Amino acid sequence: MKFQATDAHTLAAAYALGALDPGERGAFEDHLRTCEACRQEAAEFEATAARLAAAVSQAPPAAAKAQVMAAIDGVRQLPPRIPTPAPAPALGGVLRRRALPLALAAGVAAAVLGGVAVWQQQNAQDLERQARQAQQQLDAVSAVLAAPDARTVHGRAANGALTTVVTSDRQNAAVFTATNLPAPGAGKTYQLWLDHDGTMRPAGLIDHNGTVVLTGNPAEAGAVGLTLEPAGGSPQPTTTPLLLMALPA
């Protein structure tokens, strides 16, 4: 993209994602020295990108080893036996009797370790699925923020949350970012809406600070709304909007 003084304020997202060429980046950094609004916006985008990137890389849970060791330690051992004096048995009988508890212990250990292995596999699959979802979200957000036609608008919700919406006609998508968003409370969630000529259509959920890609078609909407709804969301708003912000034209 070509950097021009008139579009300097639209490059914060691309700057945060490292999508500017060296000349554009230098010119925009010069602009940042004199523009407080762009400095704050770039910092917010950088923080959001870092949170999304961190979600992609997830190490195995630290509790895995402790749970394995606890499961092994929990296998009950048989109490010692004090045999009554008896004639010395044949060697074959001794081996058979000793083999029985050893086989039983081996079977118990195999069952425990087999269960642990299944748990580890399921846990690994969950982590892999979460990583794929986070990567997909990061890719979708990055595509909008780095789009050459990206446009940005800022707002403040009634509960004090600072909001930013970035839209791209080329991507036919919009990204919503919230900071200082209070916890929704037990059994509640924040729901996003797209206002289509007075009809509010669900556009996704957000229950903490972060960034989400709005669902639906932002090209046909005039505003984005935010309400507090029961967990899982609602088909229509059930509370007064905390935010109703016009989308950038």
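The above is record 1. Record 2 follows with the same two-line structure.
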Amino acid sequence: MTDRRGQAAEFLRQAERLVAPIGPLSRTWPDLDLADAYAIQRENVVRRTAAGATVVGHKVGLTAVAMQQLLGVEEPDFGHLLDEMVHRDGATVPAGRYCRPRIEPEICFRLARPLRGPGVTAQDVLAATDGVAPALEIVDSRIRDWEITLVDTVADNASSAGLVHGAWTPIERVPDLAAETVELFVDGEPVASGVGAAVLGQPAEAVAWLANTLAAFDAELQPGHLVLPGAMTTAPFVTAGQKIEAVFGKLGPVSVTFAPGVSHE
């Protein structure tokens, strides 16, 4: 199985580098399980850090009940955020570096203190959080046509491809993240809206889940780490030439533009 893990990791890495999606890993190797999938994800994180990237945090996915039902699971999954994936508010990114991107508005957490499970609660998360920011996660599947199972998306870094965040607000100024609202616009037209409660009832619950889950991997959330807890709305597909903006009730706006461009190596 170790050889297949390495081969699967290489397939995904080349799919990302060449912007050439592949067929589902779950079809190539039907016996791959969740442990294999996280090992494949980790192998590509190790490869990227060896090439100079730095892990700056994590993303939590599958926090919406509808997505859990779609993939037949009862809990979220997670992926890694690297510095090369982070963009400033208002950034223009080449659409050509992604296979078939989608966009998700989220509340980004920035930690001031470490969090290590088990037993981490949402209150622990809020106490350890320095600030929150309006954010857009760029999600992309290196699996062709998003034909994914849980194993496929986990192996593929939980389908994460980028993070765009706006200005940081001290956590004490946003006391009720569950009530925080967002409206998502594509080229100025509203396409979706949502609230923080869509993320496990309270976005901090997703961060607590992450901290507790990482403990099983002998890992913890570090001071300064960023955490994306999950989407507050549906995730529309985006294409070259489009500008996406999310306007949050208290946290303010954040935007990104997808421009024509070639893939990165």
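The chain has one domain: 2-259.
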